């Protein structure tokens, strides 16, 4: 138990220094700004005003001082007040401007890290929980709170030195009445740990709540929400998350409440009552304390009590912030399983899967088992098979989103692990089954950056023509400058599923590639649009490698070779004619699809 507590204290200290380091790197002036602002207030209010000025004024009155003496003291007080106000304003100005720098830096670092982590992280609930807790540093403005609390601690220390010096000059025994507040500081630290544990237990529930709140407002889910009973399921999930949070709050609430009662006793009753009793005795009985000293002593002790009480809260808040920064540090410290090699990818000449076996993390059975085949430059290959056969997994391994468990993947005869992953992926043009368009202009969606000149816009137009999207985009008032979706722009436009898929395909055409990988590239397209896209692909990929992953076997007919995936293995391979002659799995799938097309055509004719 002691070892665990030591580790916990050590982690808090490390996280505190980490928070200070991160904030200082982003803005060395943020802590200075808060410190100036808070010190200007506390030192002036609690020491200059409540002790020095008060004692001088009472002594002037009791000693029969002149009006001139009184005015000089008042002018000096006003001078200190102006300096304190200037420090307060200057510190606030520095802190407010510098805080934006910290916010921007941390946001950028979190976004960058989120885009760099392994793809498998996005299929791991623990990663999402950790990511949520890391973003809490930004969303809850922990950097500003940490800096504010740190500035307060510096201010408290400076002010406390003056107050303790005064109390000791009157009677140091009075400090003993403040010792009862020491346990309060530790109780606040424990209370803060309880609050953090409560927040941590609520993370998963909060994510579920956020998910439901987000989904009910998203266009992609609006139709299903209104035409099915899924809304009730989502509502139940939301209510359950809220009720679970209520139980967690209740679990910790009585403990924190008890600590608050204890804190009131330690901070209000003992210091103030003890000082009053002792002060009255010194003034009325022992005659060791003057009227001015008695009045100022009560003020000084009250101020020091407030400082110690506030310091206790500050320490616990700094500790709480450090725990959140610990989440941030853990998030940034995540090391990818996919390790970059040192080779830069050159033009792709061949791809080979050699005895590849792969199992998803947490899965019991492998998705691919001992898969082997070679694809050479100039070849067009189709990967076909039923759902769950391993086709999409093949794409993820090809792009090195995952590493194989056994066997190896070779690019130009060299193991993929020896290449820099980014340089390799840039050689591959992709259109995914779960394609996405973003709430940006068409130009930005296609180029993946802003269109800076006419050459860029012409390049986008060419890509849109190849994908078949240009006909629709050219009818829009702003053309390719139109923002997709109305989420951020009232003049934005919504595209159909097929039109969105064409824009996603244009993104591939707009960038150079040696290998085109099309995972269900025409799932949202009608047969005519599908045919036109394939025509463009054939023209664009002369001398290049093309891999189709599709349920529609029309693309397979155009391929030089077809690999039929079944239960994670390559069940058949060959050309369309060869596989039809074998009368196996492929022939059965093709015949069924052909009959469906025929039935559809006959139905249209009957109408």
Please explain how this structure is put together:
The chain is α/β, with parallel strands linked by helices and 607 residues long. The protein has 3 domains: 2-332, Up-down Bundle (ABC transporter transmembrane region fold), CATH 1.20.1560.10; 338-427 and 513-607, P-loop containing nucleotide triphosphate hydrolases (Rossmann fold), CATH 3.40.50; 436-512, no CATH class. 64% of the residues lie in helices and 10% in strands. The chain has 19 helices and 10 strands. The protein has helices spanning 2-26, 30-62, 67-116, 125-139, 142-170, 182-215, 219-227, 230-285, 291-332, 391-398, 421-425, 442-447, 454-467, 470-473, 497-509, 527-540, 554-557, 576-582, 585-606, and strands at 350-358, 368-376, 380-385, 406-411, 414-415, 428-431, 515-519, 545-549, 561-566, 569-574. It has a 6-stranded mixed β-sheet. Strand 4 and strand 5 form a beta hairpin. Helix 2 (30-62) packs parallel to helix 5 (142-170). The chain is elongated. It starts with a helix and ends with a helix.
Give unreliable regions as ranges: 597-607
How many distinct helices? Answer: 19
Largest sheet: 6 strands, mixed
- Second CATH tier, the architecture of the largest domain: Up-down Bundle
* CATH uppermost class of the largest domain: Mainly Alpha
* Shape, per Cα inertia axes: elongated
* Overall pLDDT metric: 81
CATH homologous superfamily placement of the largest domain: ABC transporter type 1, transmembrane domain
Note the beta-strand portion.
5-15%
Number of strands: 10
- Work out the helicity level: 55-70%
Q: What topology, given as strand order, has the largest sheet?
A: 6-7-8-3-9-10
Tell me the count of domains.
3
In the CATH hierarchy, the third-tier topology of the largest domain is known as: ABC transporter transmembrane region fold
Structural class: alpha/beta
SSE order: HHHHHHHHHEEEHEEHEHHHHEHEHEEHH
* Straight-line N-to-C gap: 80 Å
- Using only C-alpha atoms, the radius of gyration works out to 35 Å
